[in-house]
Amino acid sequence: LFLIKHSRGQEAARLLADAVRLLPDSPDLRLAHAVALALANRDEEALKALAGTEARWPEWYRPYLIHGLILATTFRSEEAIRMLETTIALGAREPEAYQYLALAITHAHPEQLGRAETAILQAVALSAENSGVQFLAGKILLDEKKYPTAAQHLEAAVRLEPDSVPAHYLLVAAYRKLGQEDKCAAEAEVIARLSKTRLKPGVEPLPLQRLLFGVQAPATGGSGE
User: Nearest to residue 204, comparing CAs of 78, 100, 115, 120?
Assistant: First the structure.
């Protein structure tokens, strides 16, 4: 777990593979092993490990959640949608379940923006102080031509992460649609300054470590509660 906290996935995966062999009935060890594999960019092995955990504890939503996040970020969007909807149906309340469901919907079904909006606004309700959630909400609402609300979410995104160039770009687009040219100019100056330093992504990296260390293993009887 120390190695996972420090993103040393390969070393953690080796140790956890030994641990799983010694304690094959430990759901938390199995989940940690899958996370370590994902952090080591061994996605197919991670997905296989997660599928085995899901089969063993079918009512425990955590493996489905991590499975869905990996699928969403590797552009296997239809599979991700099914997995994340299963996660939510099993009781997940993590904002990431809704955030990455919305992301997968935009990739697989760009014509279903209303469906993506429903998911991302649920993520906002659960985690309004998450810059990645606010960014994606703003992007989806901008695509839906809901410019005032899009601007509000993008303003929140840049407040939470002032160095996010993608968020500033989308905020310029929202302000332009709203006819607020002074604000457009101010944002353009921010972008010019930031572009001389470094770019930051608009959506945060996979929160696998946070999800793992918030894990609650299923009951011994396999109820998933």
Answer: 100
Q: What amino acid occupies position 182? A: D
Tokens of 41: 């960019």
Note the pLDDT of residue 201.
Answer: 47
**Closest to 59 in 3D by CA, of 20, 104, 99, 92:** 92
Q: What is the pLDDT of residues 157-178, one digit of tens each?
A: 999 999 999 999 999 999 999 9
pTM of the model: 0.86
**Per-residue three-class SS string for 130-153:** CHHHHHHHHHHHHHCCCHHHHHHH
161 phi and psi, to 5 degrees?
-140, 85
Residues in CB range of 107: below 8 A, 6 or more apart? 72, 75, 77
CA dihedral over 27, 69, 133, 104, signed as positive or negative: negative
Q: pLDDT (tens digit, 9 = 90+) per residue, 113-127? A: 999 999 999 999 999
Tell which residue, 143, 132, 13, has the closest CA to residue 73.
132
